[in-house]
Design brief:
Layout (H helix, E strand, L loop, with lengths): L7 E5 L4 H12 L3 E5 L5 H8 L3 E3 L13 E4 L8 H8 L4 E3 H10 L2 E6 L4 H14 L4 E9 L4 E5 L32 E5 L14 E4 L7 H4 L2 H13 L6 E5 L12 E5 L8 E9 L2 E8 L2 E8 L5 H15 L4 H9 L9 E5 L4 E5 L4 H14 L5 E5 L4 H15 L4 E4 L16 H4 L6 E4 L5 H6 L5 E5 L8 H10 L1
Parallel strand pairs: 1-2, 1-4, 2-3, 4-5, 6-9, 6-10, 7-9, 10-11, 11-12, 17-21, 18-19, 18-21, 19-20
Antiparallel strand pairs: 7-8, 13-14, 14-15, 16-17
Helix pairs in contact: 5-8, 5-9, 10-11
């Protein structure tokens, strides 16, 4: 039975952002979908409203026994009762990355990889495609505000709505447009480097946004990270296309294929931004695309790094021969991603912005963007470190970038999939902070701490469960 024809699926770790997108995909195909997760969240509540049953106890009595396929996340421990039951009883088990690989193998696929920015870039690409009339399916690592989902699928495009004016190197797909025909269309996949998941994919086009030091618990060294990204580029179809941010450590190791280097500022790149202006709520900017200028593009979300993300999406769109006007229209209507430079609250006294940043480079561009937009205001950053291993490996870098704020409120480390490591606490970062004010606060004490302080620009930063404090903090700020 083909994986898309399986009628009953169970997801171990269904509340994960990538797993839930895949669960929604199979639900849209008419399959009976259910799953397990350790914690009830807003996302699991949404899945249940969509008809996907979720259990929260690792109890064998709660797990369905008539299942065609069990999909699991690498975060599920190997001693998990449900995982052991399905494995010991010879059910078909597949990692999420395996299932995405199978989906990408027989569909025209655009895969977006990189140490950061991939959720926004993949969302932008999907939005441009849909707004330009392409039949599109997208698996995202965040909730795209335009569709309020991490799984996007467009209806069959009306006749004449498909853009078939593609380069001849797409003829390898069988001599016809890759975008038309029954069941055809483009799949956009956020390609995760964790657990080497992106090596399962077979992309026709790809983006690499950055190759930075991260996931050393998986790779061990930066050299091994580089090797993994090079291997990903070798998965791209022989006549495919790669858009890669310029000045990456793997440039001289890339395979021979059609490619474009892009950048925000690097004028030696194939695609770059010669000029941008901060506007209320976003940016106006120009893009130089292989010597031709696309003028007056508008982006209505904050963060100058999002201009660079848009440049990556524009590069893919231009390769697909999408018109400048369609690109402009789509970008102007793009509403961003939840927890990516998301403005939670604003009045005359305070601005409250939340971001998923969990790597020093992400924190750098986030705080510098905030400083550019609000140059005369005091910036207070609440940061929840994510993973003991990442904190241990990058404590100095975290402290350096957080210190660009005027004040830092540092929370305990969110463990995610890890067990505590001896000697690894938030103190590793805290003791190296050089900002004017700093506080070490237990997360259960955060709300009381916030009640007794005033703010001009308040930032919450992190990939753990800091987002559950957004509503209480907003209520405090609203009541003042």
């Amino acid at each position: 039975m083909h994986i898309n024809e399986m009628k009953k699926l169970f997801f171990l770790g269904i509340g994960g952002i990538g797993m839930s997108a895949l669960a929604r995909y199979f639900k849209s195909l008419g399959a009976e979908v259910s799953g397990y997760d350790k914690t009830q969240t807003t996302l699991t509540d949404e899945l249940e409203r969509e008809g996907i049953h979720v259990v929260f106890e690792d109890d064998l009595n709660l797990y369905p026994k008539e299942i065609d396929l069990v999909v699991y996340t690498p975060a599920i421990p190997k001693d998990h009762k449900g995982f052991k039951f399905y494995k010991d009883n010879n059910y078909e088990l597949r990692k999420r990355s395996e299932v995405l690989g199978i989906i990408s193998a027989d569909r025209f696929t655009i895969a977006v990889a990189g140490s950061h920015g991939k959720t926004t870039v993949s969302s932008m690409i999907a939005h441009i495609l849909i707004q330009s009339g392409f039949k599109t399916t997208a698996f995202l690592g965040g909730i795209c505000n335009n569709y309020n989902s991490n799984y996007i699928t467009s209806p069959q495009t009306p006749e004449g709505g498909l853009n078939t004016n593609t380069k001849s190197h797409y003829d390898f797909l069988g001599g016809s447009s890759p975008f038309g025909g029954q069941g055809a269309g483009i799949v956009v996949i956020e390609a995760d480097e964790f657990d080497r998941s992106f090596h399962r994919l077979s992309p026709d086009m790809a983006v690499i946004t950055a190759v930075d030091t991260d996931h050393l618990d998986i790779y061990g060294t930066k050299e091994k990270i580089d090797e993994a990204f090079v291997e990903f580029t070798n998965k791209i179809a022989e006549e495919g296309f790669l858009a890669i941010k310029s000045q990456q450590s793997i440039e001289d190791k890339l395979p021979v294929l059609d490619k474009a280097f892009y950048s925000l500022h690097d004028t030696t790149s194939d695609v770059y931004c010669p000029q941008y202006w901060v506007t209320h709520g976003g940016y106006l900017f120009h893009v130089n695309y292989f010597g031709t200028e696309i003028k007056n593009l508008r982006l209505n979300i904050g963060g100058f790094h999002n201009i660079e993300n848009a440049i990556a999406a524009i590069t893919i769109a231009k390769e697909l021969k999408i018109s400048n006007e369609d690109i402009k229209s789509a970008l102007a209507s793009f509403k961003g991603i939840k927890r990516r430079f998301e403005k939670v609250f604003e009045n005359d006294n305070v601005i409250f912005i939340d971001d998923y940043a969990h790597h020093p480079e992400e924190i750098r561009v986030f705080v510098e963007s905030i400083r550019e937009i609000y140059p005369k205001k005091k910036i207070t950053a609440v940061f929840q470190p994510h993973l003991f291993s990442r904190t241990k490996d990058l404590a100095k870098e975290f402290a350096e970038q957080l210190s660009k704020a005027d004040e830092v409120i540092l929370l305990d480390i969110y463990p995610a999939r890890e067990l505590p490591m001896e000697g690894v606490t938030s103190d590793l970062i805290f003791n190296q902070l050089t900002c004017a004010e700093k506080s070490l606060v237990k997360k259960e004490e955060l709300i009381d701490f916030v009640k007794n302080k005033s703010f001009e620009v308040l930032l919450t930063i992190g990939a753990g469960d800091i987002d559950k404090y957004l509503v209480p903090i907003k209520e405090i700020l609203t009541s003042r």
